[in-house]
Amino acid sequence: MKVVDHPNAKLMEAVYAAFTVGDVQKAAGYWTKDCVHYYPGTSELSGAHEGIESALAFAGRMFEICQGRIQMEIHEIGASDSFAFATVFTRYEREGRSLEMPFVNVARIQDGLIAEFWTYPEDQYAVDRFWA
Fold first, then answer.
1. In this structure, what CATH number is given to the domain that contains residue 104?
2. What span, in angstroms and rounded, lies between the C-alpha atoms of 45 and 31?
3. To bridge 8 with a disulfide, which of 31, 58, 79, 110 should be the other Cys (CB 3.0-4.6 Å)?
4. What percentage of the chain carries pLDDT values higher than 90?
C-alpha cells in the first residue's frame, strides 16, 4: 500500500480539503469529541485546546483574526496505522501584515479520527510576533 493510499493519509487530505476553504465545521467532523490540538508559542492562540469545542473555538478565532485570509498549500501527507503528518506552506494575513512559512502537523489517529494534533512552525518566534 502506498503511504498516500493509507486511510489515515486520506483522513488528513479530507481535513485539509475542508479547512483550507474555511469549512471548520466539516473539518471538525474528522476529530474525536475529546481531541486535543496543541498549538505552540506564547500568543493568545497557544496552548492545548482540549475537546472539539475548544479546537473549534481556536480555529474560529484564527479565521476571525485573519478575517478569513488564510491559505494553505499541502506539500506532502504521510501516514502509519497510528499517526499521520502533513507538510504545509501557510500564509496568514492580518492588519496589513502577513506570515508565510512551512509548518509540519502531526496527528495521532484513533478509530479513524484525529485524537491529538501538534503544530510545528518553521519559526516559532515569527509566529508569536504575528499573533501578538
1. 3.10.450.50
2. 19
3. 79
4. 86
